[in-house]
Amino acid sequence: MIELRRLTKSYGKGTQITTALNELDLSVEKGEIFGVIGHSGAGKSTLIRCINLLERPTSGEVWVDGVNLTSLNTKSLQAERRKIGMIFQHFNLLSSATVYDNIAFPLRLIHTSKSSIEKKVNELLALVGLQDHSDKYPAQLSGGQKQRVGIARALASEPEVLLCDEATSALDPQTTDSILKLLLDINKRFNLTIVLITHEMHVIQSICDRVAVIHQGGIVEQGAVTDVFLKPRHTVTRDFIRGESDNSELFKQAMNATDPLNSQVLKITYLGGKTYESILSKTVRETGVDFAILQGTISTIKDTPYGQLVVRFEGNPEDIVVAKDRLIKQGLEVEVMG
Length: 338
Ligand SMILES: Nc1ncnc2c1ncn2[C@@H]1O[C@H](COP(=O)(O)OP(=O)(O)OP(=O)(O)O)[C@@H](O)[C@H]1O
Description:
Layout: E1 2-11, E2 18-28, E3 33-37, H1 44-51, E4 59-64, E5 67-68, H2 74-81, E6 84-88, H3 99-109, H4 114-127, H5 143-155, E7 161-165, H6 173-190, E8 193-198, H7 201-207, E9 210-215, E10 218-224, H8 225-230, H9 235-244, H10 248-256, E11 263-271, H11 279-287, E12 290-301, E13 304-314, H12 317-329, E14 333-336
Parallel strand pairs: 3-8, 3-9, 6-7, 7-8
Antiparallel strand pairs: 1-2, 1-4, 4-5, 9-10, 11-13, 11-14, 12-13
Helix pairs in contact: 3-4, 3-5, 4-5, 5-6, 11-12
The structure holds adenosine-5'-triphosphate.
Adenosine-5'-triphosphate binds next to strand 2 and helix 1.
Keywords: Amino-acid transport, ATP-binding, Cell membrane, Membrane, Nucleotide-binding, Translocase, Transport
Organism: Paenibacillus macquariensis
InterPro entries: AAA+_ATPase, ABC_transporter-like_ATP-bd, ABC_transporter-like_CS, ACT-like_dom_sf, MetN_ABC, MetN_ABC_transporter-like, NIL_domain, P-loop_NTPase
């Protein structure tokens, strides 16, 4: 659906050049929610703005729905852009227009008839839950309501793709979750392809199918969110995930208390239905090893449950090896930590 080929974007001239994106390749499938995460200055905004050519790449190609946008003249580009909606961190609504008029705006631009506009805007108001607010002005709305208007406006021209530029960064956690739920709902309902950029792992974990980690203008890691989240390889990815649950001091203390001769510390990951099975208790009973839990998490990645336990196995070294092998045979991921 979207393909970025060797995309480079530099700002400035001569000795003042900043390369925001450096020969970046990326592909997003139809109907998926694809997240791009990175620290400040990594190139996220530049990347998302290059997809609809709000920002012209210095070199490389942008393909959307089989069309090379970088090769089009202004008129053809305008037509193709209608397939790409966008929402923004600070909503970018017209402050002097009502909710209704903000949503109608893109339809008026393409000379849609008054009756079609009315039908479409009312449908969209219902979709985003703002039926009772159509005559209000942006200043009379909460942040979450403003973003709902932004979403409705972006959907007015029935796009194939929705770009979300830090769409929840200005919202509190509860409102963030309600907006993420709405994005998930419209993704399913319209098979809409969504690309979002964020610096919050929580956003990726809640709704994305796949994720790319961007660092210094390049993708350093990408894949299914379950893979990247549970088995991060790059230090930047690890930083984001650790930021979600930083209890490294507690963990260090527990590791220091570990007797290296008769114990071993393991990180055990359960995914999907395995999360709720009593695999660990059966294994320790059958092998006779004891265990202490040093850390534990149970949560979901989109709709997949997962659990992660750091445990210290204690006992006869051969029994510990058998216990570890049994966990692996039953489909758990096991990583030796010390
Ligand atoms: N218009 C511009 N002129 C010059 N340099 C720019 C411009 N826009 C971005 N940059 C530079 O390009 C790099 C990438 O910026 P970008 O805004 O894409 O990163 P980001 O990951 O979105 O950061 P943030 O999360 O802080 O918004 C940075 O070094 C930034 O200073």
